[in-house]
Specification:
Elements: H1 4-7, H2 10-16, H3 26-40, E1 45-48, H4 56-61, E2 66-70, H5 73-80, E3 90-92, E4 104-109, H6 120-133, E5 134-145, E6 158-164, E7 167-174, E8 179-186, H7 189-192, E9 198-205, H8 209-218, E10 222-227, E11 241-247
Parallel strand pairs: 1-2, 1-4, 2-3, 4-5
Antiparallel strand pairs: 5-11, 6-7, 7-8, 8-9, 10-11
Helix pairs in contact: 2-5
């Protein structure tokens, strides 16, 4: 069992935010917040694995009341440097079991984070916990990457996902268990402070879109929409990721 507290420790939390760049850029956050605010329809929202508040803080600024659930105390501490508990409450705990209340209009889980849950069983429990938080007719939004197994050469169990100056991302794949370990290799002396490379590893369980849909059905959801991105681009066989919107039945 992976110790998520050690994986998402103070060092990671302090280096997580990249204001204005990457996943913190306006080009990424603007469409994300816009879609989530629309889906909330004026109601309250819960973010599973709220992290340092990358999405929750601008969504709150957009007028949506947000409660976070987060397992890592270090990530919560970093969030608290930016938003008070009154403005953005956080329940510390596992997103498969922690409870932040009931009657929410929206639960969301972004940036591939459901893959941090390393078995199918606990991934299904994440869906069930989302359902417990929602009012009838509420929706659960999941952002997730599509496994690039076609990039695996015969006889090989790994792919180079990113290769750029000072950084290399190599994924090793266990297709039997649907597990990927991402190896983040940093070797820029200006960043690492050393001529030696630093390696960080994070494990993930990948989920095919059809498997994700079945998990949703087990928890009482129906797939409402699936896009390739937060701009609502068409999802195709070539899409590298998807944003999936699942909805509970409304009361009759």
């Amino acid at each position: 069992m992976v110790d998520q507290q050690r994986l998402w420790d103070a060092e990671v939390a302090q280096s997580y935010d990249t204001p204005g760049e990457g996943m913190f850029s306006d080009d990424v956050l603007g469409p994300t917040v816009g879609v989530l605010a629309e889906l909330a329809q004026g109601g309250r929202a819960v973010e599973f694995a709220v992290g340092t508040g990358r999405v929750a803080i601008p969504l709150r600024d957009a007028g949506v009341q947000v409660v976070g659930i987060e397992l890592s105390t270090a990530m919560v501490a970093r969030l608290r440097e930016k938003a008070s508990a009154d403005r953005l409450p956080v329940v510390e705990g596992d997103m498969t079991t922690a409870h932040a209340g009931e009657g929410f209009a929206l639960v969301y889980l972004v940036y591939n984070t459901i893959s941090n849950l390393l078995t199918q069983e606990v991934q299904v429990e994440c869906f069930r916990n989302a359902a417990r938080h929602l009012a009838p007719g509420g929706c659960f939004v999941v952002e997730l990457w599509v496994p690039e197994l076609r990039a695996l050469a015969p006889g090989y169990r790994g792919t180079v996902e990113v290769s750029e100056p000072g950084y290399l991302l190599v994924d090793t794949v266990d297709t039997l268990q649907q597990l990927i370990v991402s190896h983040h290799v940093r070797f820029d002396p200006e960043i690492t402070g050393s001529r030696e490379a630093r390696v960080g590893r994070s494990p993930h369980r990948y989920i095919w879109p059809s498997e994700l849909d079945l998990m949703a059905r087990l928890a009482g959801f129906e797939l409402e929409s699936r896009w390739a991105d937060w701009d609502r681009g068409a999802f195709t066989g070539e899409s590298r990721s998807h944003v999936s919107v699942y909805r509970l039945p409304a009361q009759s």
